[in-house]
Design brief:
It is a single chain. The protein is of the alpha/beta class and about 325 residues long. It has helices at about 20-35, 55-65, 115-125, 135-140, 160, 180-195, 205-215, 270-275, 280-285, and strands spanning about 5-15, 35-45, 45-55, 75-80, 90-95, 115, 130-135, 145, 175, 200, 220, 220-225, 230, 255, 265, 315, 320-325. It has a five-stranded mixed β-sheet with strand order 4-1-3-2-5, sandwiched between helices. The chain has a four-stranded parallel β-sheet with strand order 6-10-9-7. Helix 6 links the parallel strand 9 and strand 10. It starts with 5 loop residues before the first strand and ends with a strand.
Amino acid sequence: MENKDYSILLYYCYADIEDTEAYREEHHLFCIENNIRGRIIISSEGLNGTVSGLKEDCEKYMDYIHSDARFAKTEFKVEDHDNHAFTKIHVRVKPEIVHSSLRHIDPKVKTGKHLAPDEFKALKDQEDVVILDVRSNYEHELGRFKNAITLDIDNFRDFPEKVKELGHLKGKKVLTYCTGGIKCEKASAFLLDQGFEDVYQLHGGIIKYGIEAGGEDFEGKCYVFDNRIAVDINKVNPTIVSACHVCGEKCDRMVNCANPKCNEHLPICEECGWELEGACSTECKEHPEKRPYDGTGYYQKNTNGYNPYKGLIRKEKKDKTKLEIHD
């Protein structure tokens, strides 16, 4: 069995953060000093991150998060990997830790009942249960739970409007799920707010379900927000539910269109990928700004001149003076 030296961590935590800029600064510096890379969002409502690093560095990072009383109960989904899943570290302050248009919803006050993966597995096929996918189109088209209801949305912020179409489900047990659990915190709370009475959420999302319950009945692959693009979940009864955008053959190979002006997330088979040079159409293939295709369909943003200290004001440990680091 291949020995993998790196970990990928997926996590979130709803908690009050008063001085978000100060905490962003501290958090950013810790990541740099411990070679943690990834995307982290800090908001007055909490934390949301996906990061990668050597296993020992990821252990330090988890200890760092847990050492803060505000985030002591943070749960991490930990996956082994053979390298960094990111090339940069970005720690940003934003109004929400997931863009939802539901800023008035506080999951710390009200949210759906959390189901552990085994509990979700035991409940999902009961007669009075419906499974609701709260993710976007390009995510559920690649993979979803068997018999799940999916919503025609391009972004999670469109979720509240789509709930208007679900009134006929109010007498059912509604089991919500998403990639890591964060969207369900607000989605399930909003369903309760709209009169749904028996609402649940898959705690830890699809990723935790794959790790702890074998991924049974999750059909297709799970879209992830790092350079893997898509990951296998189901180790029990895997199947493919997506089709190549170009030829229509069954395909779970997810790519970003090589035309940066399009950049659509689509399943495209290997043969069509090479034929169109990573583009999703002839028009995109002929676009003057089309990126070179290397067979993966993943395009890292240009890292030329990348400085992990950009915008960081840090206090030097030795002389206690503040130093502003520029490009």
